[in-house]
């Protein structure tokens, strides 16, 4: 369950430094202190709205669905008076791990390479057999003479 602690905007505004930074997005109160360094848009833009409601700025960028999921990860509560749909964080984490890309190569064995392996094995034996047979026959001939 996402955090349901209720904060007033004045409480949120106490946290606006790079050592302790909270923002409000769509009624959710987030502690983004640990996210500042990771933010793809840089920490400055978040610090500028630190301690405030940053919904407008967040939406203006057109953040992706992934970014909206990150919001849930840092939620510490909700803004007093805001109506916030509850989302189970477990689902978000699962969704993230399901969307990880994987690359794989399938090496197909075709019929041609199989038959090549067969000839590689059989032909030398056949040749050796013929040679030994020939030698035996010619030796038998020489003894007879
Ligand atoms: C506090 C919660 C925020 C989270 C969790 C967050 C997350 C992200 C993520 C994941 C991206 C990568 C692109 C994407 O997936 O959309 C991104 C990009 C960006 N964000 Fe945020 N963001 C937050 C707040 C903000 C705010 C308040 C601003 C501006 C005032 C902002 C400005 C930007 C910009 C400019 C980029 C684009 C970077 C680029 O494409 O070079 N973000 N953010």
Automatic annotation (TrEMBL):
Main localisation: membrane
UniProt-listed Enzyme Commission number(s): 1.6.2.2
All copies of domain Cytochrome b5 heme-binding, residue ranges: 4-80
Signal peptide boundaries: none
Classification via InterPro entries: Cyt_B5-like_heme/steroid-bd (IPR001199), Cyt_B5-like_heme/steroid_sf (IPR036400), Cyt_B5_heme-BS (IPR018506), Cytochrome_b5 (IPR050668)
Cellular component annotations (GO), alphabetically ordered: membrane
Keyword list, A-Z: Heme, Iron, Membrane, Metal-binding, Oxidoreductase, Transmembrane, Transmembrane helix
Compartments where found: Membrane
Pfam families to which the protein is assigned, alphabetical: Cyt-b5
Keyword Signal: no
Family, per entry: Belongs to the cytochrome b5 family.
Name of protein: Cytochrome b5 isoform 2
Organism name: Cajanus cajan
